[in-house]
Design goal:
With 140 residues, the chain is mostly helical. The chain contains five helices and two strands. Helices cover 57% and strands 9% of the residues.
């Protein structure tokens, strides 16, 4: 029994992409600690001490502090990528950077020393990835 006219359907599945997360961070590029402290010292803090309501006093203190902070370290929006690999941590990423550096150096200078270091880092990265992935799924 053979049928050369099979009926079939193909369903393409495209997973939804995760949206980017925007978070507010302080821009400390031009932050000068001494100027910040000087401006904090020049705020009339006595006004906060005269207020009897603690919630109102906190709001006044917070407003004064945030005005100075926003002047010296303004808020900016930064897009943050969500990690698609939950077991990949900063230690492994650092090892990957070292591995890639030594590979690039070994190719660029045809260096046996960098090639051996690359191999050592490559093996270490693979071992750490396996351990981290295993630990992640064991916890799940």
């Amino acid at each position: 029994m053979s049928d050369h006219s099979l009926i079939y359907a193909v369903r393409k599945f495209i997973p939804n992409k995760r949206g980017q997360i925007k978070k507010e961070v302080r821009n400390l590029k031009h932050f000068v600690k001494e100027d910040f402290i000087y401006d904090l010292l020049n705020i009339p803090w006595e006004m906060v001490e005269t207020i009897n309501d603690p919630n109102l006093a906190w709001r006044v203190w917070e407003t004064n502090f945030n005005e100075v902070l926003n002047w010296h370290a303004p808020l900016r929006h930064q897009r943050v990528r969500q990690s698609s690999i939950p077991w990949l941590n900063s230690n492994i990423k650092n090892l990957m950077r070292k591995r890639d550096y030594h590979k690039k150096q070994s190719v660029k200078y045809n260096s046996e020393h960098h090639w051996r270091l690359y191999q050592a880092f490559r093996n270490n990265v693979n071992i750490q990835l396996r351990k981290s992935k295993s630990h992640y799924y064991l916890k799940k």
